[in-house]
Amino acid sequence: MKHGVDRRAFLRGAVAGGAVAAAGGLGLRALLRPPPPWDEAAFPPPGEARVAVLAASSYDGALDSIVLEGLGAIGADVRGANVLLKPNLVEFDPLTSINTEPRLIAAAVLAFRRMGAASVRVGEGPGHRRDVQDLVTRSGLVEALAGVGAPFVDLNAASIRKVELRSRYTDLRELWLPTPVLDADVVVSMPKMKTHHWAGVTLSLKNLFGTLPGRVYGWPKNILHWAGIEPSILDIAGAVRPSYAIIDGIVGMEGNGPISGTPVRSGLLVFADDPVAADSIGASLMGFDPAQIAYLAEASRFLGQADPARIEQRGEDPGQLTRAFSPPPLGDGITAG
Amino acid sequence: MPIDAASLLDRHRNGDGGFGARAGQPSEPEPTALAALSLRDDRAKRWLVEHQREDGSLSIEAGPYVNDSATALAALAFDPGSDRELALDYLEASRAARVGSTAATPIDASAIGWAWATGTASWVEPTARALWALRVARPSSPELAEAVGLLRDRESVGGGWNYGNRVVLGEDLPPFAQTTAIALIGLSGYDADLEARGLRALRRLWRIESAGGLSLATTLVAFRVHGEATEAVRSALERLVSATSLVEDSVALGWAALALGEELPGGDG
After folding, report:
1. Which run of H or of E encompasses B241?
2. Do residue B99 and residue A336 have CB atoms under 8 angstroms apart?
3. How many separate domains does chain B show?
4. What is the CATH number of domain A2-10+51-321?
5. Which of A158, A260, A331 sits opposite B104 (nearest CB)?
6. Residue B268 within any structural domain of the chain
7. Are residues A332 and B103, on separate chains, in Cβ contact within 8 Å?
8. Spacing of C-alpha B65 from chain mean position
């Protein structure tokens, strides 16, 4: 349970207050260099990452077998771990493709169980809708989870603890995080592959907005928008530290995402043991240059790996599955309520 | 014997008299204020008084931001007197930050309502809550017109309300039942056309979103405030409470207990 033990130890340290990087042995150049906006002791330099891209043409059929294959390809180990799946569930509109598909979430539950997880739960704190009961019912998530006997945790209403941040991209200093997130051995970010009109793309890092409780941060997580979407993505990801990512690109969304875009049938799933690597490959599969997505480029400095030479790619040839998404329209401001 | 929302909510009471987001969780301002309102509960009121800040607010801190959006509900829950007046004074003084109109989010920049947290932008729900509290407890407040102005500006195309903007990046944002209902709970007797469009939208929306207790409960309160027929939504809410206990969510149960209870703050329409 390397991921689980490491993750919980990290979060315990964060709750206790965190350590500042030791300054001993610095040369003159290091002394003159401004310190990075993160605690170096908490974020060792990103190492090698593994990503697998698998073709998946439909949400029907033996999707759990594909998920199992993908998780196996990245060497995921969840034996004995308490796993929390964090899908992207924002609003429900039967005419488009906003949310991580419930059948994929259910398939992931089955796959993690087959891999020996001690427990698998699904948690989300929808950003736009306060009525989570309506959203999870009409989106089909309640039915899908009932089919596999997995519980749903409303992260907007779950118990919370305050965690001191170890990065400083926002002025938040600390975050209230749900205990189901903090106490999970393994958090799996399961975003929809889609564009985002303020952030560029919604993938496994942006998806973590939904771990924060709306009853503290408002709807649609307004304090985070005010503190800055991209800085907030970095601080939240630095606090949550997901172990794995599974990106739902079977049907994604292009154009004016994350809500008003157009469905895109990409027919793929992305699996990774590093959220930055997942999002770098995911953005490439959408036809975007990951280096041009500002928060992703910054995340690669401390949160994970974006260097293709250090990402071991398995599964399909990504080049064969790349489908250029229409970019989101350019916004010129996000402050209005 | 049917399960009723008030009894379910009552089971969530903590030893300190307050209510958490769910049973067993630490007490927080919003569920406690809703419980105090719907159950007419003196212990919950005492919790609110004990946790009211010197400035009159009830709040949760998030770093430098202070989510004070439960203050309006607390003002409604307080008995008439100094605690209520202090909360109302705070509401009148704690308007949202001014933001500009942009091509992406065109708004009337002069319309300023209330925010979820201090120093941030206006949103529909906190503005509607402030309007409700001031309308009921301080009906001569000059801030009432400001709240109505914000809701007028943020009305969705065709009527009703989304949680924030009317249009983003050229897309009309659709209204939802819960956000439309809360806006209508605040608005009553200020703008007949605006309210009529909202009610028309809500009569359609609640049936679409009837799987959710919060949507049904706030809709029922809004219909009662505006003197609309309530039998259908009342039955739907009672059925959902019996079938799901509203997933034991204290806020949803608080609204349901209020909706199904005898008397609303400010009375029925």
Report:
1. helix B231-244
2. yes
3. 1
4. 3.40.50
5. A331
6. no
7. yes
8. 20
List Cα–Cα distances, A207 to A6, A88, A138, A237, B62, in angstroms: 22, 6, 20, 9, 20
Domain assignment present for residue B67? The answer is yes
Nearest CB among B69, B165, B250 relative to A336 is that of: B165
Cβ–Cβ contact B260 with A under 8 A: no
State the pLDDT at residue A31: 66
B62 touching A (Cβ < 8 Å)? yes
Distance CA A99, CA A94 (A): 10
Instruction: Give residue-wise pLDDT tens across range B139-185.
Output: 999 999 999 999 999 999 999 999 989 998 888 999 999 999 999 99
d(C-alpha A302, C-alpha A249), whole Å? 26
Q: What is the pLDDT of residues B219-254, one digit of tens each?
A: 999 999 999 999 999 999 999 999 999 999 999 999
The pLDDT, as a whole number, for residue B167 is 92
Q: What angle do CA A28, A34, A37 make, to 5 degrees?
A: 140
Residue B113 covered by a domain = yes
* Model confidence pLDDT, tens digit, residues A12-68: 444 433 333 333 455 666 667 788 999 999 999 999 999 999 999 999 989 999 999
Asked if residue A231 has a cis previous peptide bond (ω within 30° of 0), the answer is no
Structure ipTM over 0.90, yes or no: yes
Cα(B209)–Cα(B177) distance, rounded to whole angstroms? 7
Task: Judge whether B216 lies within some domain.
Answer: yes
CB atoms within 10 A of CB A177: 24
What pLDDT shows up at residue B61?
Answer: 94
CATH number at residue B24: 1.50.10.20
| Domain locations in chain A as residue ranges | 2-10+51-321
Query: Domain span at residue B46?
Result: 5-260
How many CB pairs (< 8 A) connect A and B? 165
CB proximity list for B67: less than 8 A, separation 6 or greater: A215, A216, A217, A218, A223, B59, B60, B61, B116, B117
Q: How many other CB atoms are found less than 10 A from the CB of residue B64? A: 15
pLDDT of residue B2: 59
